[in-house]
Amino acid sequence: MTFFLQVFPSRFEDESPGSLVGPLVVRGIIPASNDLHILCRRQAWKTVQKIGDLEYLSDYHVTIVTICDGRLNFGTRWGVGDFDISELIDSAQVIDGLPFVRLEHAASYKEIRKRPKDLQHLEAHQAYRKNIR
């Protein structure tokens, strides 16, 4: 958490500079994996470019910054779908002091992506939704 707050201070031009992509993990819907994806914008993106390695993902036409041997990945957009990154960041849900992309946005991404693990995650998400009603 300390690292996130250093890169993304609470006041950044009166807007949230980024959002974590891990709403299913933080709620215990799926087990934690070995990496975390972080959406960022403006100054936060400039900051992470100074501390990590730039990598172009040609399959998705996106550039990311990786640190911690690839366990933390920063980007300015998702590689699939047509998502408004400002909307994803601005509507983030704060959990334990950290902003996470909303569950419905993560589910929409996984519905588009449709890898085997995404389909498993969607099943787990549906079960979670049934249990919280």
Q: What does this molecule look like?
A:
This protein is of the alpha+beta class and 133 residues long. It is 41% helix and 23% strand. It has one domain. The protein has helices at 2-7, 23-26, 42-51, 85-90, 103-113, 116-132, and strands spanning 18-21, 36-40, 53-57, 62-67, 72-75, 93-95, 98-100. The longest helix is centred in the C-terminal third of the chain and has 17 residues, at 116-132. The radius of gyration is 15 Å and the shape is globular. The N and C termini lie far apart (31 Å). The relative contact order is 0.18.
**Backbone structural class:** alpha+beta
Structure summary, number of beta strands: 7
Number of helices: 6
End-to-end gap: 31 Å
Portion in strands: 15-25%
Number of domains: 1
Helix and strand run: HEHEHEEEHEEHH
- Write out the strand line-up for the largest beta sheet, numbering strands in chain order: 1-2-5-4-3
Helix content: 40-55%
- Summarize the main sheet: 5 strands, mixed
Shape: globular
Radius of gyration: 15 Å
Task: Give a short summary of the structure.
The protein has 133 residues and is of the alpha+beta class. It is built from six helices and seven strands; from the N terminus they run αβαβαβββαββαα. 41% of the residues lie in helices and 23% in strands.
